[in-house]
Amino acid sequence: LGGRRLGYVAGVVPRMDEMRFSRALWRASRGNTFTQFSTIKEKVVDPKTGQVLEKSVFVVYFQGAVGSMKDKVLKVCTAFGVNMYAWPNSSEQAKARDAFLKRQLEEKNKALEAFQRHMRTEAAELVAPAPWNLSGNSKIEDWRLFCIKEKSIYTILNQCEEG
Questions:
Q1: What's the pTM?
Q2: Element (H, E) at 44
Q3: pLDDT tens digits, 83-116
Q4: In this predicted model, what pLDDT tens digit does every residue of 66-86 receive, in sequence order?
Q5: Other beta carbons less than 10 A from residue 77's beta carbon
Q6: What is the pLDDT of residue 35?
């Protein structure tokens, strides 16, 4: 290629727009792009609309890492409203990104497990009987009965007249 580099843009497009997207890229670049699609097996939530859609991952390859061809590809991507994602420039960057994402996933899983543990202990505490009445109701049932009693007291008090 004589010092020229291949440019690429990666992202996610709705499956129903694949062919239109591919044709639009082909026409805008006058046949100088190659688009590769890979279907995502499960449905994905679109971050822009919040709808659950069937989507495909795409990579568009074109000649020249910068310049007018990249601008044309980006304009078509913007017109279709696809979600574009950064693509690593080297294997070292890809490995670093992978390690970062794995660490982040591990941290989020630890936080999720801690939250679930906390919720289980709180729920167990609420359904356990009160310490002063081990053979009686649970704490949440005692609270419910207390609220009913308070409500009935205030209902009666509201029926009284001043004077």
A1: 0.55
A2: strand 44-45
A3: 777 777 778 888 998 999 999 999 999 999 999 9
A4: 677 777 878 887 887 787 777
A5: 21
A6: 80
User: CA gyration radius for the chain?
Assistant: 30
Return the structure tokens found at 84.
């574009």
CA distances from 144 to 1, 151, 157 (A): 77, 11, 20
d(CA 117, CA 111): 10
Distance CA 28, CA 112 (A): 46
The DSSP H or E segment spanning 106 is: helix 91-127
Q: Coil, strand, or helix at residue 58?
A: strand
Q: Give the type of residue at 96.
A: A
Nearest-angstrom CA–CA distance, 109 and 104: 9
